[in-house]
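Saturday, quiet lab. Running sequence design on the structure tokens for the scaffold JK sent over.
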């Protein structure tokens, strides 16, 4: 799989810096900003699946166009929200477990008991089990997001049986991809954030959204190669998209 396909597509766009900057500004807008970015990412995914890697979809401050991006992104955003609930439960359960374990360790220490065993249990849970639980929970989340964004329809993302069937088929690619994207994220976002006094984390996160969109396109490509049933692809553009003029004919 081409994990850096999105990075190459980004660099081929002559306006990529401006689009990353605008995407960064939208990431600070509550609720509406993430939906706009989801719509933008949905168009990226559909174009990538259709073989149109570059340039990236339009992203600017035109109100009518942004309204259409919100409409395009709402279904994918809602799918992410609904399928994120199990992940939130796992994370919150981990925090509660951490607090309870810390209280038990503190109580054991105050009572003069050896707290080594509770500390070992906490280390096992949060250093080994929690990351595994988070990755497992996020697998169907990625598939549901792919199905909603690719089809421009919430219904395919809410067919639980189909989502889990596709997740099982693509489990290997999803797990490896998660680790690769995590490695890319830590390798890009942390050093860039440290150099720029954390300010660079925000544009780096937009770059990671582009990379993840094209990674999902690679996942879908491999899904079809494995004999998966194709999904209907939604519109590649939204109303208000201005296409570049066609080059003059050569005689």
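Result came back. Writing it out in full:
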């Amino acid at each position: 799989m081409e994990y850096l396909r999105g990075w190459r597509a980004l660099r081929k766009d002559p306006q990529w810096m401006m689009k990353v900057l605008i995407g960064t500004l939208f990431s600070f807008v509550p609720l509406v900003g993430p939906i706009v970015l989801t719509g933008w990412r949905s168009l990226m995914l559909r174009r990538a699946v259709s073989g149109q890697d570059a340039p990236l979809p339009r992203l600017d401050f035109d109100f009518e166009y942004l309204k259409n991006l919100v409409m395009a992104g709402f279904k994918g955003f809602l799918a992410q929200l609904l399928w994120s609930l199990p992940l939130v439960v796992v994370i919150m359960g981990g925090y509660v477990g951490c607090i309870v374990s810390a209280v038990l360790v503190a109580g054991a220490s105050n009572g003069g008991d050896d707290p080594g065993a509770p500390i070992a249990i906490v280390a096992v849970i949060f250093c080994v089990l929690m990351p595994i639980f988070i990755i497992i929970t996020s697998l169907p989340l990625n598939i549901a997001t792919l199905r909603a964004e690719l089809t421009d329809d919430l219904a395919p993302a809410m067919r639980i049986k189909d989502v889990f069937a596709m997740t099982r088929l693509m489990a290997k690619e999803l797990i490896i991809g998660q680790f690769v994207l995590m490695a890319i994220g830590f390798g890009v976002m942390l050093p860039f954030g440290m150099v720029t006094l954390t300010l660079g984390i925000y544009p780096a996160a937009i770059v990671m959204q582009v990379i993840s969109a094209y990674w999902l396109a690679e996942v879908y490509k491999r899904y079809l190669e494995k004999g998966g049933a194709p999904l209907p692809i939604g519109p590649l553009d939204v109303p208000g998209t201005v296409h570049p003029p066609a080059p003059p004919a050569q005689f």
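Notes for JK: The first helix runs from residue 5 to 12. The two ends are 40 Å apart (CA to CA). Ask whether to fix the surface positions before the next round.
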